Amino acid sequence: MPSLKSRTLSTEYPPIINATISLSLPSVHPEAVGSAIKLPKWSSKAIKSFAMGELEARKIKSPNTGTEALLMGILIEGTSFASKFLRANVITLLKVRDEIGKLRGKLDMFFFSPEHPPLTEATQRALDFAINEKHRSGENEEITTVHMMLVGLWRQQESLGHQVLVSLRFTDEKAKELHSLISEPGFKDD
Question: Staple 17 to which of 8, 13, 24, 108, CB 3.0 to 4.6 Å?
Answer without folding.
Answer: 13
